[in-house]
Design a protein that fits this description.
Oligomer: single chain
Distance between the termini: 47 Å
Radius of gyration: 17 Å
Number of domains: 1
Strand content: under 5%
């Protein structure tokens, strides 16, 4: 028999980012006026949510000093991508706008994978 409680407990690290994305889109769709449509900037929020979810996963599962360093690096990477996107990519052309959304999405997925690896014990130390 399928036990939903065990499934959620085993996969909570991935349920939180996915639920965050779904809720964000739900709020964006509800708050968009009827005479407007969703634009590309709204899709940028997926990658941003994933980056923030990676930081949140680490903050809620503190294990060691490595967790502190990972949170710091995740924050710096998120800020760097935000500055890169805003200064050099967004508004140049439609292709650059799409590339910036894809960049944020890829970085967000990588940060969530690193956070998952750290929480599951695959990443124990950071070599500085």
């Amino acid at each position: 028999m399928f036990n939903l409680g065990k499934f959620i407990a085993a996969h909570i690290i991935w349920i939180v980012p996915i639920a965050s994305i779904i809720l964000t889109f739900f709020v964006i769709i509800i708050s968009t006026p009827d005479n407007e449509r969703l634009n590309l900037k709204d899709f940028l929020s997926i990658g941003i949510n994933l980056c923030i979810s990676g930081i949140t996963i680490l903050l809620t599962n503190y294990k060691s000093v490595t967790t502190t360093w990972l949170v710091f690096f995740f924050f710096i990477i998120t800020l760097f991508v935000a500055i890169l996107t805003r200064k050099f990519m967004w508004g140049r052309s439609k292709i650059m706008n799409v590339l910036s959304c894809i960049l944020y999405l890829v970085i967000g997925i990588i940060l969530c994978l690193i956070a998952d690896g750290h929480i599951n014990g695959l990443i124990n130390t950071i070599i500085l």
